[in-house]
Amino acid sequence: MWKFIVRRLLVTFPQIVLLSILVFVMAQFMPGDALTGQVDPNVSPEIKQQIRERLGLNNPWYVQYTDWIGGAVTGDFGQSFRFKMPVTDLIEQRIYNTFWLSLVTLIFMYIIAVPLGIISGRYNDTWLDQTITGYTYLGFATPLFIFALVMLWIFGYQFGWFPTSGSVAPGLSPGSWDYVWSKFQHLLLPALSMALIGTVSTVQYLRSEIVDTKQRDFIITARAKGASESRVYNRHILRNSVLPIAAFFGWEITGLISGTIFIERIFGYPGMGALFLESVLMRDYSVVTALVLLFGVAAILGALLSDIILSIVDPRIRIK
Amino acid sequence: MALLEVRDLKVHFPIKGGILNRTVGHIKAVDGVNFSIEQGKTYGLVGESGSGKSTTGKAIIGLEQITEGQVIFNGEDITSIKNKTKDIRKDIQMIFQDPYSSLNPRKRVLDIIAEPLRNYEKLTKNEEKQRVYELLELVGLTPESIWKFPHQFSGGQRQRIGVARAIALKPKLIIADEPVSALDVSVQAQVLNFMQDIQKELGLTYLFISHDLGVVKHMCDEIAIMYRGRYVEQGTKDDIFENPQHIYTKRLIAAIPDVNPRNRDKHYVFRQEVKKEYEQAYDEYFDAEGLAFGLKDISDTHRVALPERG
Amino acid sequence: MEAKDMNVDSQVLKSESPSGLRILWRELVKDKLALFSLIFLILITAFVFGISWILNQDEIVRVDLFAINEPPSDEFILGTDYGGRDVFGQLIIGTRNSLTIGFLVTLFSGIIGIVFGVVSGYFGGHIDNIMMRILDFFFILPFIMLVIVFVSLVPSYNTFTFSLIMTLFSWMGIARLIRSKALQEKELDYAKASKTLGSSDISIIFKQVLPNITSLIIVTMTLNLAANIGLESGLSFLGFGLPENTPSLGTLLSYATNPQTLEHRWWIWMPAALLILLLMLAVRNVGEALRRATDARQRRG
């Protein structure tokens, strides 16, 4: 197992480096540089040139890259020209919202997936299974943003059960019980929308895994030996089928990232996804660069984590 | 001069391991094999599965990388893939073991048999079709077959298609890798006889790879027994069947079923004796790793891996 | 001989390829839902492409300030949007654009994915190893973000270049699938036989191995088409699809990010939402039926 983990880590490092280079190259194509928005447009070109020289903007690309990556590692992503503040501070304001949104979504996903998957797999081809399979079929075909819009329209506007925008009701003091409750209320509908769509692949995985395991020889043997049905399920089938999905959350991160971009836009939720969209529209490229890098690293680390957990839970994949 | 000469052929597969996936060891699939085949003869290579007999055949034709040694065909060194010029590759063809997977299921018989022709000869559509008809006739299939797909044929017929494809370029040497072991016993003899017929007709040379000594006895002029990548015994058909020297060969021959039911009991006793001898003498005939020793000449044609005594 | 030849030729039609295509078709026709979906798709495609020949796109996207946000009426079957543009006309042109991009992206990513996968799987070894690391890397990238950044960086683009940008980050799934299949196929004797018969690697890959994985390719590409239609409309929804004067289905939905529109003017976004849903469902129905057909265990008869 250690061998697998070390080997997997060896792949991760170049991935992060490659990502950073990709983002850096992308940043080079973006109009403007660190000076944009910082200096009065009326400053003469000579002085601009001097500042450029001082900031190292005339250095060869690899020096610039090292400077940039050095800054990024220490948490310095430069200045946002729109907000006139360090990108790091800007992201810090938003990162908690997105973190909570993603976490609650993940929790919902598991709460939905595990029972539905188990029921569907255990009682396959009953009407219950057919209903669940119907849901996953529809869930696969429905784009997240349409589903979220409809959810907002029905439960936010028509029924008025949920707040329709923002991350917290205005006027509440942070730390109070009301504040936390309001935050949770604002989270609920976006997280639920994302989870209901995002979870269908896990439900399907669980179902087919259980249906598959059911017909394996060792299960038939267990039955033949007289093990009770519940024992067969709890001791044999579920252990084989449910544990691997514990490792899925890391891979979900890539999905969650694109999910938050849509969800935060639709629900007017002030997180990193919304920040990303605003920054692209406003051409606030230092923020865009930082966000792509951050999300990319998060996805890479998530996949790493999942692979490692899976290798612990499910020794089969280690053989490779 | 021999048509094919193989000198000290070695094919080793690396075993990968460790964190960086480095080579940590080798599986010696073929470990120092020497033989030569005369034009027009059939040379049998016998062994259990995993003995390296198929790998030997595949190494000669270039499907496996040769680690060490030399392969000389018609006086030319064709050890490295680079030296296998188009002309030489044309002269060596192969018949595969599994007639089901060796024919592309999506191709019509015409395309299957014409594939080598298209690679080597510039023929018009009509000439090509004509040649395929001739080949089909040669292997005893009806002309309508050319529009059919492999799944429309039986195993024996499929193997005939495989043979037709192998002889399409009029090769000098055919490597037949267990050509009948996937077929019903009833069809085996049919295909074997037919292979002998076209051998006479076209002057072919066979390298005949099989695990079945009975089949080899029927087909081959010279026979070699392989065990774990090395030769155990090599000689003419008579040398091997009338005068086996190595206990492994003896045991293989004893295992051939006797056709005569009256001898069954006698045969059984004989087999038990051989088995006993084999178990007792195993350490003597194989080295510490369980591999055969080097070959020693017993007669002009007969070579056996006998232990170094004294 | 001449007569015999012709006789043989006339039998060409009698023996059928065992190839997937025919089986796929047979299964598709047997599955009523899938057949219905296919007919629906063909009709919709024919309809939107046919109508948009006649429709004047400039007229539809021209802003008319005297007819803003009108509910459905005789003049405008599905009402108008905030710029007074006819929603029904936009729906037709949007469907056409969404379908076109969906088809193009599926085609491009299919070609790249197939070539990448089959080469990686066929050659194996170090080549495969390196190519798979590249693929893993692309797989892990935040697709939506990168497309958005690319779109915002490229100064001007059209349907074609937009499809290329999407393709850049969406060829990996099919590549991985094809690769694992090619890995299996090349181990079969027919591929080895081709080698001994003097065929080059390229010819073995494309003439021998590829025909054996066509059904897999068709199934995957159908399912990808559904995904790509969804992705394209999603990007347009965020405002990073085609510009507003070339509407897509997502453009109509993006008007719903205005709470007023979402709450009170259902006619602007609801039809587009339904249409996307129906299109994706229909394509998936066809794709799933095809998938069942390739899997002999699940065939319906």
TrEMBL record, chain A:
InterPro entries: BPD_transp_1_N (IPR045621), MetI-like (IPR000515), MetI-like_sf (IPR035906). CDD domains: TM_PBP2 (cd06261). The chain crosses the membrane at residues 9-30, 99-123, 135-155, 187-206, 241-267, 287-313. Residues 95-306 form the ABC transmembrane type-1 domain. Pfam families: BPD_transp_1 (PF00528), BPD_transp_1_N (PF19300). SUPFAM superfamilies: MetI-like. The keyword Transmembrane applies. The keyword Transferase does not apply. This is Oligopeptide ABC transporter permease. The gene is opp4B.
From TrEMBL, chain B:
Keywords: ATP-binding, Nucleotide-binding, Transport. Coiled coil: none annotated. GO terms for molecular function: ATP binding. It comes from the Bacteria. The keyword Phosphoprotein does not apply. Residues 6-253 form the ABC transporter domain. It holds the Pfam family ABC_tran. Transmembrane segments: none annotated. Belongs to the ABC transporter superfamily. This is ABC transporter ATP-binding protein.
TrEMBL record, chain C:
SUPFAM superfamilies: MetI-like. Its main location: membrane. It holds the Pfam family OppC_N. CDD domains: TM_PBP2 (cd06261). Residues 95-287 form the ABC transmembrane type-1 domain. Keywords: Cell membrane, Membrane, Transmembrane, Transmembrane helix, Transport. It is a multi-pass membrane protein. The keyword Transmembrane applies. PROSITE patterns: ABC_TM1 (PS50928). It is found in: Cell membrane. The chain crosses the membrane at residues 33-55, 101-123, 135-154, 160-178, 209-231, 266-283. Belongs to the binding-protein-dependent transport system permease family. This is ABC transporter permease.
